Amino acid sequence: MGVDVQTEDSAIRALVGRWVEAACAKDLDGVMACYAPEVVAFDAIAALRFEGTEAYRKHWEYCMGFAEGEMIMRIPDMDITVGGDIAFCHYLANCGCTDTAGNERTGWMRGTVCLRRIDGRWLIDHEHYSVPFDPETMKVMTELQP
Amino acid sequence: MGVDVQTEDSAIRALVGRWVEAACAKDLDGVMACYAPEVVAFDAIAALRFEGTEAYRKHWEYCMGFAEGEMIMRIPDMDITVGGDIAFCHYLANCGCTDTAGNERTGWMRGTVCLRRIDGRWLIDHEHYSVPFDPETMKVMTELQP
Predict the structure, then answer these.
(1) Which of B81, B123, B125 has the most A C-beta neighbours within 10 Å, making it the best mutation to test the interface with A?
(2) CA distances (Å), origin A88, targets A56, A93, A120
(3) Between 20 and 30 A from A62 (CA), which of A1, A32, B78, B134?
(4) What ipTM was reported for this prediction?
């Protein structure tokens, strides 16, 4: 059976859209519904790797608690490649939160999302988020602009 | 045509193996031979994104100059998913270099590599390397162990 790239591309964009919406709403169940049970995640903060939804859910809970006000995540553009029942996509995301005074505090992050179509439904099998660092100071470069 | 997952898995492992060998030998041409022309890379240091082999080659040249002595890259284990003519794989890599006294200075990094099979040959279409950071200090956590 051939792959209708356009259809699958749209389905993946919809999934990432639901994920962003859930993250911004601090809807933990909504975020977790986007992951395959055996997800392996490389998140931008705190640990090298999270394996499985139980461990990753705890991390997401911590992240949602960390955001002072509203969570912000904007993905202006996304590159998607589909092949059969797998796909990968990557993008730059403007992420952060509002502080107690209501001011936006955001920076740019890189996101890579690898997906599987399981029983006709796309789910995130692996994801990788990060901010590059300056090897002189070992600090992350939160001031970079695309 | 079906995909012989075992064969493709081996071909991808061989490609990553050549890439590691070239990186450790500071063989710039050898490293660059592993990339698709339109590669988009999110590297661990210095910039948000590199687009195309010309830009990425310059960055690799900078990285190879940055390593004082020999470059070190060890990938104990790798998870590969193949679907038709695309694939993705992820791993933890122990990376660094030897200093002027010959001592190893390494840390753990996360790697995600997304590939395409172009004219029967696997090439890296997208890669993402990073070290997680501590949101309290904004410094990368180079001391983490898998």
Answers:
(1) B81
(2) 20, 16, 16
(3) B78
(4) 0.95
